[in-house]
TrEMBL record:
Alphabetical keyword list: FAD, Flavoprotein, Oxidoreductase
Gene Ontology terms for molecular function: acyl-CoA dehydrogenase activity; flavin adenine dinucleotide binding
Name of the featured protein: Acyl-CoA dehydrogenase
Family: Belongs to the acyl-CoA dehydrogenase family.
Keyword Manganese in record: no
UniProt source species: Novosphingobium malaysiense
InterPro entries (alphabetical): Acyl-CoA_dehydrogenase, Acyl-CoA_Oxase/DH_mid-dom, Acyl-CoA_Oxase/DH_mid-dom_sf, AcylCo_DH-like_C, AcylCo_DH/oxidase_C, AcylCoA_DH/ox_N, AcylCoA_DH/ox_N_sf, AcylCoA_DH/oxidase_NM_dom_sf
Domain Acyl-CoA oxidase/dehydrogenase middle residue range list: 124-202
Superkingdom field: Bacteria
Cofactor(s) the protein needs: FAD
């Protein structure tokens, strides 16, 4: 790993441990019940800016760290669920910055990307739709939201659901289907043509704004706000989604490393039946298993990141990493709760929240079963091609 990345990661870790972790008991972390208050986010980001660790994965010249370098930085930022918010490495902003950095025009970057990189604004990615009989859910190929050209403008209508961070966001990326195919548009938020119909209560609580359901009615946007060209939306989605699902792995691995630290300390201090908890095989073995799973997750992330660094979309590799790491982190978090017993299910430590967040992560950016289904289809194609007479 490069000295550059290690140096940045060390600064990020010091900032998260010394400055961010004390905020975990701040009542503003609960906000309106759908994630931390934006006032808290801006307060932490001001301190991150002062410490030189705001948006640390994007360099001063606008270039990004490699994916392998990004991994060690984002893992360290994830040592607290608040760390990615404070350092501006949190979803959906991190993924949206990556997409705009690779696809947006110079003018679009100045208007929409710059406020995200500076940490002054949050963003939302409007792709997922209601999963009812007429809805697409998270499958963009079934998208029902439409866009039609009207002179030098486009008119967008449809519904979106589970739009993370929409409430309070200043920048939006909306995906819709035209005759030419899928399209993406940039817009300033809020917009009167988009209304929040619901912000459901969810198991996770780390992202400001929650996960909103939206109605889009005659949203009129100039053609200059289309990202790239009409019909290229699906390819842009892949540019964003492969690195973004890997970034989730990085951040939540950091949180599980922290949970393991807390559970290990608890097991070493707590005594039961005449000896420390960790000396009971039932407890010690769980912590040992966690250590193995953490290392396996680190290696899987590094492997998938190295594929992305070659310029490949890495769709299959990021899917494999997402499945492997999310399932491993779920086991780690569950073991930590179990080791800590009753204390593990209380808010006395951040372990309980990490457990909830990681459970939701198994669904973020495609549930485990969807990725396995996609991988199975690829296996079938490769096998039939090999055995075809």
């Amino acid at each position: 790993m490069t000295h550059r990345a290690t140096s940045i990661a060390d600064k990020v870790e010091a900032f998260v441990r010394e400055t961010v972790i004390p905020y975990e008991k701040d009542p503003r972390t609960k906000g309106d019940g759908h994630g931390p208050d934006d006032a808290l986010v801006h307060e932490m980001r001001a301190k991150a800016r002062e410490a030189g660790v705001l948006t640390p994965h994007i360099l001063d010249d606008g270039t990004h760290l490699s994916q392998r370098e990004t991994a060690i930085v984002l893992i360290r930022s994830g040592l607290s669920p608040l760390g990615p918010l404070a350092c501006n490495t949190m979803a959906p902003d991190e993924g949206n910055m990556y997409l705009l950095g690779h696809v947006a025009s110079k003018d679009q970057k100045q208007r929409f990307l710059a406020p995200l990189v500076s940490g002054e604004a949050r963003s939302a990615f409007l792709m997922t739709e209601p999963a009812d009989i007429n809805g697409a859910g998270s499958d963009p190929m079934m998208m029902k939201t439409t866009c039609k050209q009207d002179g030098n403008h486009w008119i967008i209508n449809g519904r979106k659901r589970f739009i993370t961070g929409y409430k309070g966001a200043k920048v939006g990326i909306v995906m819709a289907k035209a005759a030419e195919g899928a399209c993406m548009f940039l817009l300033d938020l809020p917009n009167d043509a988009i209304s929040i119909t619901d912000v459901p209560d969810t198991i996770d609580s780390s992202m400001p704004g929650g996960h909103a359901e939206l109605a889009i009615e005659n949203l009129r946007l100039p053609a200059s706000q289309m990202l790239g060209h009409a019909g290229e939306g699906f390819s842009y989605a892949q540019v964003r989604l492969s690195p973004a699902r890997l970034s989730h792995c990085m951040r939540w691995l950091g949180s599980c490393i922290r949970a393991q630290e807390i559970a290990s300390e608890y097991a070493c201090r707590r005594e039961a039946f005449g000896k420390s908890l960790i000396d009971h095989e039932g407890v010690g073995f769980m912590l040992a298993e966690n250590r193995i799973l953490i290392k396996q997750s680190e290696l899987m992330i590094d492997w998938a990141a190295s594929v992305l660094d070659t310029g490949s979309l890495g769709t299959a590799e990021s899917s494999m990493a997402k499945v492997s790491v999310s399932e491993a982190l779920m086991k780690i978090a569950d073991n930590c709760v179990q080791v800590m017993g009753g204390t593990g299910v209380t808010g006395d430590t951040v372990v309980e929240q990490i457990f909830r967040e990681v459970r939701a992560f198994r669904i973020y950016d495609g549930p485990t079963e969807v990725h396995k289904w996609s991988l199975a289809k690829k296996i079938k194609r490769q096998t039939l091609k090999r055995i075809k007479p």
